[in-house]
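Dear support,

We are seeing what looks like truncated structure output for some complexes. This example has two components. We would appreciate it if you could run it in full and send us the complete token output so we can diff it against ours.
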Amino acid sequence: MEIPAIKFDNVWKIYRMGAVEVPALKGLSIEIRRGEHVAVMGPSGSGKSTFLHLAGALDKPTKGRILIEGRDPNKLSDGELSMLRNKYIGFVFQTFNLIPRLTALQNVMLPLILRGVDGVERVKRAKEALERVGLGHRINHRPTEMSGGEQQRVAMARAIVTDPKIILADEPTGNLDSASAAEIVNLLTTLNRDLGITLVVVTHNPEAAAPARRIVRIRDGVVYEGN
Amino acid sequence: MKLLDILWYAFKGLRDRKTRSVLTILGIAIGITAVITLVSNTSGFDNFLTEVLSRIGSNNLWIIPTEGGVKFTDTDVVMLSRLPGVRATAPFYFQRVLLKAGSIEKYVNFLATDPRVIKLILPDLNLKEGEPLQPSDVALVALGHKVANPPEDPNKQIRLYSSVSILIQQSSILKTRSFMVGAIYDEFGSTPYLDVDNSILASVEAARSLLGSKHYPAIVIVAESPEAVEPLIEMLRDMYGDRIEIISPLTIVRNVRAIISNFSIFMFVVASVSLVVAGIGIMNTMMMSVMERTREIGILRAIGFSQRDVATIFLAEAALIGVIGGLLGILLGASASLTLGDVFGRMFQVGETSTRMGQVIQISYTPVISLNLIIESFLFAIFVGVFSGLYPAMKASRMDPVQALRAE
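Here is the complete output from our reference environment:
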């Protein structure tokens, strides 16, 4: 049987706010196959961001089992988890999350620098990634000199520069005008289709969710539709 | 992550907050400057003292009657020579006199004692011309290098076997006596108390005939070893009480050394405090940086930076502050040491104006900036940086990535 890209098995995530326990996920189960394009929708506070953070190995579940490319985050050390993120996962955030003092090229190179890829090679790969998102001409600009759409494309270049297996996008169009939003959705869809990268998009925006082959709806910490 | 990349990222971080970084770096630089200036000057001064001590002869001491005190006679000289630990004693005259020789007329020191003792007090004093003085030489004197060759006028020299007149003021009478130059010494260099180069040396007999007094103005005692000096001083105090003043280069240099060492402890505390303050400055800067860059820490974690990688980056930034501050401090410290050497020299000047032998110790020393000092202060600067960066770096690395990403 093929190993799924992401598998959640009765996953609970409970946050502790002082003495109060706030459950964000209440036994969520889902399986996302490799190469799938999934949109995750749901109202605010439904637990979709928590789902994304757990799927991206940024956090560990309180209960239940998660497998990311066959690896169980609960059994990994911080170093191993970080390596898992670097190797398999690319994040795209609503607020772009670029490092302001670095140029587009440097931002995209950062995951390669962490890996110890040498200078010539990482510049080459970062340039390729920027060209793929259509920003080959703006590599030496800083985020502050770029539009929202351009910044999000830099973020996407950063996400794909490591050849990840999975891209996790958290409201990728949330801060963009509709034209830029459409471009980003297009680009994400292309990456999924052409490179076979598993794509999970968490969104409120029906247009961002439309190209997905499967739409999963989360409410009150469980999947109620799309499993 | 490669070291060079870590440094690149750290440097970018520092450059991003230029003013704050510069001020923090300055804090470290000032601390290191203080340490280098202090240590180089103290060791330079210490070298100077050691050299002085070796030249003046650390086992000599002089006793001089206080106002209305004892009157030294041959009995004292003989009695003192029998004290344990004494190698030799001799009467000692030291006086400013007016020298006349041809067109030369200037004030010089007149220094008279047993010629055999001269070799013991000033072992490095060598004859250039003529014959060594003898105890019986009543009409001969020996000239110090600068007396025979006045530095202010190279054409006016006093030659061997020429005649010189020495004038002294006694009460209201001006006494004159002529001597023949029997010897001229090589240059000796400056020493505390005995500026031999500007002196005329004579035998006790010659001094007696010039000054006419039966009493000796001072007695020089040569101890067998520097260790014998302190017990001798105690014995002299027991014998003469407050009626004499005792001058010993050894004890004076020791006292000066003690003052210097106390002073340097105080300065070292000040320098250390400034480095502690600089360290707190680094910690403060780094803490602020960690707070302000919470979001960035979240981004780095999402990209795959481990807790250790994040800690390394912040530690590298703190260390870089130490490195730059250290280098700057070494440069500033080295130039400050060299320029301040003079100022310190004047500050530490020691005068013995209460005695007729009173002459200021001429302090001229070169601060010692050793390679060790440079390396140690550099490493210390890095240590202060890294140590102050530990807590902020730990704080940064322990941040929850999810919370960090949500930070504004």
